[in-house]
Amino acid sequence: MKTANVPKPIAGTSGWLDDRLGSGNFLKRSMRKIFPDHWSFLLGEIALFSFIILLLTGTFLTFWFKPSMGHVIYDGPYEPLKGVTMSEAYASALHISFDVRGGLLIRQIHHWAALLFIASMIVHMLRVFFTGTYRRPRELNWIVGILLMTVALAEGVTGYILPDDLLSGAGLRISQGVAISLPIVGTYIQFFLFGGEFPGEDIISRFYTLHILLIPGILLALVTAHMTLMWVQKHTQMPGKGRTDRNSVGAPFYPAFMAKAGAYFLLTFAVLAGLGTFAQINPIWLFGPYNPADISAGSQPDWYMGILDGSLRIMPAWEINVLGYTIPLSVVIPALVPLGIIMTGLALYPFIERWITGDKLEHHVADRPRNNPVRTSIGMAGITFYGVLWLMGANDEISANFHISLYATTWFGRFAIFIGPIIAYIVTYRICLGLQRKDAEIISHGVESGVIKRLPHGEFIEVHVPPAEDIEAHIRGKVAIPVLASAEAAETDGVPPSGLRGPLDRLRARMSQAYGGEKVPLDPGHGDGHGDEHAAVGLDSSDDKPLTR
Amino acid sequence: MGVIGTPSPATRTSLQGANWPGGLRSVVPEGYEHDPTAQAKATLILTNLRPEELRSQTDKHWMDNGIVAHSKICTHVGRPAAPFLRTTHHILCPRHRSTFDATDGAQVVFGPTARSLPQLPLDVDIEGHLVARGDLAIPVGAGFRERGDTEAEAEVRNQGRAS
């Protein structure tokens, strides 16, 4: 990177530090690191900022929380629970909520931040997926991200259990029921985790250690790896004027991006503090202490666990006995398969895509989602799959609020989980092609100018003008998706080449053909808005009407 | 037979002053009110229905005038199954929607679980307290590897006893 044009104040300070830290000219270079500009590039930062807020608020909570399942009789300021036997953990959570100054606020911010942390990670992940920026050289960082998400879910679950109220105990019981159902290892895991029978006396203190020490440590390590890799690999950018795979167009870290990120942190914090102040979350004093014999209707997990609850709900009953051993498939399948498909599919996607397209090049310019319709459609099918399960996690609420039979919602879910993704795939594919056609139309016909012109024979037409330069560059940033050479060869001469002999090779070639290629080519010439002539739009379908009449 | 599921001694609960025909009660064995580990497996639901409403899957040797005891621990993943639909006599697990028919041995009528809620042999002692005549014959709660087909084994034992 060029360091010649570093402003003097930075060059001086960072040079001083660089000299003493033996970091070469790292700071000097990094202060001028370029951050491309696009709103969607800031989604991951919400996750980072939420994580920082989680660490700070979580530390505050540890000052008063007692991770113990010892019995105490409540004698605090909350009247309805006076004299009730409860665990020390729950009593201390009540103490934080009612006695510690600012305790309830911090607890609520912590909970909201946890919800936002996972939500922003997922949205950030979707952004990376749909723009294809997991491609070479970023596959490893993509996997680090998937790991982060998985570990964050574990962090969420362990934290959810800690207050030991009725709702969190319910979540714990489900975790235990799922753990014990696992084939072969189930009972061992349950006894190891709980130190005996459910709930025993250890689980809160064990989850506490996991929640405040081990898992945050792993998260911190992974976040560091994620950021370092991102820093080293530079940033991707949206296609546009003068943007290529070899450059990075944007604002420098100092001062522009630093100010932006700083303000953005404050904004994130303001939103979370606002939520913590005005939006009640997890009012544990209303739920009462955990008691394995009690339950309340309408109990829901935190949103990120809704998918597991939904899949457990819509699974039909199925339990088999093999050689005297029970396999509770109606627990094992919904607990492992949906999340397994999603997480494994995400982790492998860069490699599968590369296998199908044979694309070995480096990519630093992001794809617009419409320009890779198969990927976008697969993504939307995945979102639908997740969404149906997530919705089914709240089917009791749907049933109660919309007066639909509970069993009808379950049956809907059982079918929608298979049909929904297929519909989503087809619809998304059509929308992507439609948007590509719109792009092609803008390039070849220009955009409507609002000027109406009367032709000599009396006809009125609207004059089209060429699109603005940056819009055209943005559209023309589309690159045809590579297709395997062997697949193309097979199509042209009809003789299968050597790389296309086995059934797997043929499948690969067929997938490559479907996945890659240019579905709607852009007009190569300059889009000059052909005025009143109606040039062919360059579309393959015959039903396209002339666009100016 | 080893004790699976419920702690001894027998379940005792007083019904004096209770007015709950057609309803459902949740009970915990006497002396275990503050023991979560016992509650996690020994909690019961008592349903009080008219004896003629009860059907074949309910073991009628184990009831008292329409009062039947089943494990409250859902056979899906072990959540307590509590809400009772009075019109249909269905017991519902509020978390994952497993539904059991209280009139017919708590058989599964809907939802993800495959097994009915085990029935506890119920009796009345000399003072009029409901007591358990023995333990639950099959494990409560979620399925796990080692449980095997205990329903079939219990069935065999039952037949042996009847003949």
TrEMBL record, chain A:
Q: Which Pfam families does this entry report, sorted A to Z?
A: Cytochrom_B_N_2 (PF13631)
Q: Which SUPFAM superfamilies does the UniProt entry name for this protein?
A: Transmembrane di-heme cytochromes
Cofactor(s) this protein cannot do without: heme
Q: Which reaction does it catalyse?
A: a quinol + 2 Fe(III)-[cytochrome c](out) = a quinone + 2 Fe(II)-[cytochrome c](out) + 2 H(+)(out)
Q: Where is the composition biased (Basic and acidic residues)?
A: 525-535
Q: Where are the transmembrane segments?
A: 39-65, 109-130, 142-162, 207-232, 252-275, 322-352, 372-392, 404-427
Q: Tell whether Membrane is among the UniProt keywords.
A: yes
Supply the name of the protein.
Cytochrome bc1 complex cytochrome b subunit
- Look up and give the organism this protein is from: Microtetraspora fusca
From TrEMBL, chain B:
Q: Where is the composition biased (Polar residues)?
A: 8-17
PROSITE patterns named among the record's database cross-references: RIESKE
Q: Which residues form a coiled coil?
A: none
CDD domains given in the database record: Rieske
Name recorded for this polypeptide: Rieske (2Fe-2S) protein
Residues in the signal sequence: none
Q: What is the lineage of its organism?
A: Bacteria, Bacillati, Actinomycetota, Actinomycetes, Streptosporangiales
Alphabetically list the UniProt keywords.
2Fe-2S, Iron, Iron-sulfur, Metal-binding
